[in-house]
Amino acid sequence: MYDDAQNTAHPIYVPEGKSAAWHLTYSYYTGYANALTGSGTLTIVPRNSVSRVRIESGWNNFEGTIVHNTSLWLPLRGNMNAPKMTLQIADGSAAASSPGYTYTIGAVTGSGDLTNSACDYNSSSAVSGNVTWNLGNNLGKDFTFAGRINDNSATNYCTFNKVGSCTMTYTGPGMNITRAVNVNGGLVLDNASGADLGSGTLTLKSRCAALPLRLRAAAPCL
């Protein structure tokens, strides 16, 4: 599907066992608020080379997998609560959000990145603030993430919260974040090569099992 219209909101349904590709527009300053449903696999292909389009909403009821595998950012700009969805990010790819938004995603896989873009995608102006990534689910769907969560700068940073009772196994090269890491349920497992979870404060919820965990610096652990 090639979606070249401005500011679309048409529904997208991907049935279980089916795959589709959604090619975003080349045009500047286009917003997508399409209601995405189903449990199939949708590959999203950004085509604007300077990230002047944005996905604003619509993923909350999707139970399938979104795939991003190009060198252009997957441009996110809007709070999302998709606890049954999987986001698969290929090596060399990044899902990049404007500052100020929160994303709850049931599982993130692949070796790409989750990033604070420092862009609002609706103009050429720079913006600043936090992006919160809540990763995990209560569906018993364990997952492995081999990428990174990245701050963009001292004023454009990320917070990472492991949520849900599932097991998230982290095997990536280390997270480039300086703010809070909160483990609110399940397990967060470091890999054998010693990858860390950044240099922010690590907080473990009472009775939460997490072994082993490393921070890049000697931040307090509660």
Please provide the count of β strands: 20
Q: Give the overall form.
A: globular
- Oligomeric form: single chain
The major beta sheet can be summarized as:
9 strands, parallel
Strand content: 35-45%
Number of helical regions: 0
Distance between the termini: 48 Å
List the helices and strands and how they pair.
Layout: E1 12-14, E2 19-23, E3 30-32, E4 36-38, E5 41-45, E6 53-55, E7 65-68, E8 74-76, E9 80-89, E10 94-97, E11 102-110, E12 113-116, E13 129-135, E14 143-145, E15 148-150, E16 156-162, E17 167-170, E18 181-183, E19 187-189, E20 202-204
Short description:
The protein has 222 residues and is mainly beta. It is built from no helices and 20 strands. Helices cover 0% and strands 40% of the residues.
